[in-house]
Amino acid sequence: MAIGLLVLFGVCFGSFLNVLIYRLPLGQNVAFPSSHCLACNTPLRWYHNVPLFSWLALRGRCSTCKSPISVQYPLVELGAGLLFFAVALQEEGLTEKVILGILFSLLLALSVIDFRHKAVPDSLSFPALGLAFFSGNVAASFEHGLMFAGGAALLRMFVSTLVKKEAMGEADIIIAAIIGAVLGVALGLLAVYIAALLALTAFFLLKKREVELPFIPFLASGLLLAYLFQIPLIGLMEAIYG
């Protein structure tokens, strides 16, 4: 029952994230105007705003003008619900489940925004960092977060000087701090390594298309994978390093 309620909350939170994903990069108010069709501006009724089910019932089209509704909406809602489900299975305390569920959902939103706009709003990334500091032992999370932020900042300066252009964004440093705060040093470094591997793989696969790849989705994926599989990963590191 508790897990089901958390998943339901996650799906509803994902619906709110869709509003943030669309409006924050455009500098729009997240509350006004109320939800409306982006094509014909018709205000949506409450039954058009039921997460997941409304999109399915409308078959992905506006009830008024029949314009297509992006599949991003149900995917983000479903993704947030699955993230809450995964965290609920991983954590014991309700507080940790809620904090980490919201945190990973915010990272999902940041990943979508970064993929679409190649930049993310501070109004979303800083709250995510604040949650990360309270995801476990506050003192340790704060220390490890600052450590990873400092390391990412130094790496940014070094690589930018080497290639003579900006190599990383400031938001990447914030996500690195989140990784350190949530995972600690050993798993945090492993998460960054996983992120780098995913990014390099995507780069080589899409190299001929000259696609500009944002890094935040890969950092968030590395964090999530290291978090979900931390027990076998810790066992593997102990086996390797004794």
Keywords:
single chain, 242 residues, mainly alpha, 2 domains, 70% helix, 0% strand, globular
Please characterize this protein's 3D structure.
This protein has helices at 2-23, 53-57, 72-90, 94-117, 122-133, 138-163, 170-206, 216-228, 230-241. By secondary structure, it is an all-alpha fold. The protein folds into two domains: 1-90, no CATH class; 125-242, no CATH class. Helix 1 crosses helix 3 and helix 6 (138-163) packs across helix 7 (170-206). It is globular, with a radius of gyration of 19 Å.
Give a nutshell description of this structure.
This protein is an all-alpha fold and 242 residues long.
Radius of gyration from CA coordinates: 19 Å
Whole-number tally of structural domains: 2
Pick out the low-confidence regions.
none
Identify the overall geometry.
Answer: globular
Sheet/helix structural class: mainly alpha
Question: What's the total helix number?
Answer: 9
Give the strand tally: 0
Binned strand content: under 5%
Task: Give the integer mean of the pLDDT values.
Answer: 89
Termini separation (Å)?
41 Å
Q: In oligomeric terms, what are we looking at?
A: single chain
Specify the helix fraction band.
over 70%
The arrangement of helices and strands along the chain is HHHHHHHHH
Describe the sheet with the most strands.
Answer: none
Which SSEs are present, and which pair or pack?
Elements: H1 2-23, H2 53-57, H3 72-90, H4 94-117, H5 122-133, H6 138-163, H7 170-206, H8 216-228, H9 230-241
Helix pairs in contact: 1-3, 1-4, 3-4, 4-5, 4-8, 5-7, 6-7, 7-8
